[in-house]
Design a protein that fits this description.
Layout (H helix, E strand, L loop, with lengths): L8 H25 L6 H24 L2 H7 L4 H24 L3 H21 L7 H21 L4 H19 L4 H24 L12 H25 L4 H7 L2 H13 L6 H27 L4
Helix pairs in contact: 1-9, 1-11, 2-4, 2-8, 2-9, 4-7, 4-8, 5-7, 5-11, 5-12, 6-12
């Protein structure tokens, strides 16, 4: 019997690209912090404008109008991607505001919660069934959020808003089977004109100072924000097709872990025992869910 062939190099490349994508998402709070003198809505509008130009240019160069005709031939796709565009815009805007308002630790909490929000949406919307250990994992995370709410005096709205918006975004994109980059291109087109209109309105004497007041360094950061937005999304789309989803599920915790470390060590946000207990309950839930999923997959014949 011949020896089993080695894993193809493309798999290792996919692993590196996907891991690198999550590392970029993990350290991106530092980038948005460099733009803290710019109002969050203007950062958001510039982010959409420049990323839309980049993504659509890439699609046009690689496939002409073919990608757009293919999407337009599926009428159900058009309103669904309009909804997903609104959800991702809300997520991006809230994230940028939270980073520059000094809530990096809470943004990390949102992305730690997000996988379990996906589980809850799967149960409520897709009628998926959970095993007992998975329910225990969700319960641990819920206890963690409840503990953080009790100690803060109010729910962690930023974290819950980020987790819910990104979870709903993922649900919409799951229900509509489209190419990831083409879908991002259409979402960008939906957001482009409102964002461009806001940028022009701001520049017409309403607080905008692009190419005049903030300096060329800030202007370049705003333009390059389109690259910071689009490249990781394209990298994720590339990598996720080449490695198992179970590996993607584990790699996704790189980003919020780095965000948490940045929040504590770089931005010097408080992280006392009360917060650590709440995060600990959520981490326990994530560990239980991931561990149970791996164990169950290994038990299945032919897994």
């Amino acid at each position: 019997m011949s020896a089993a062939p080695e894993a193809p190099a493309v798999d290792r490349r996919g692993l590196l690209v996907t891991a690198g994508t999550f590392v970029l998402w993990g350290v991106v709070p530092v980038y948005w912090h460099l733009l803290k003198m710019v109002p969050a809505m203007q950062i958001m509008a510039h982010r959409v404008v420049w990323s839309a130009l980049l993504v659509v240019a890439w699609l046009m160069l690689s496939n002409g109008f073919g990608w757009l005709r293919k999407l337009a031939a599926q009428p159900r796709v058009l309103p669904a991607l309009a909804l997903s565009a609104v959800l991702i815009a809300f997520n991006w805007g809230l994230y940028i505001w939270a980073v520059n308002a000094g809530h990096v630790v809470e943004t990390s909490l949102g992305y730690f919660i997000n996988p379990l929000v996906n589980v809850v949406l799967g149960v409520l919307v897709l009628h998926e069934r959970l095993r007992r250990a998975q329910w225990i994992a969700v319960g641990c995370a819920a206890l963690g959020v409840a503990w953080l709410t009790l100690n803060a005096g109010s729910p962690p709205w930023i974290a819950l808003g980020l987790a819910a918006s990104f979870g709903l975004y993922g649900l919409v994109r799951k229900l509509v089977a489209v190419d990831p980059v083409a879908g991002l291109g259409l979402e960008s087109l939906y957001l482009f004109l409102p964002s461009l209109a806001y940028v022009l309105w701001a520049e017409a004497g309403h607080g905008g100072s692009f190419a005049s007041g903030w300096g060329w360094g800030t202007d370049l950061l705003l333009v390059f924000g389109g690259v910071v937005t689009a490249v990781p999304l394209v990298g994720f789309a590339y990598g996720v097709r080449r490695i198992p989803l179970s590996v993607v599920g584990l790699l996704q915790y790189i980003a919020p872990t780095l965000q948490l470390l940045l929040g504590v060590w770089f931005f010097h946000e408080p992280f006392g025992l009360d917060r650590a207990l709440g995060f600990g309950a959520i981490w326990l839930g994530l560990a239980l869910y991931a561990g149970e999923g791996l164990w169950h997959s290994r038990r299945r014949p032919g897994a």
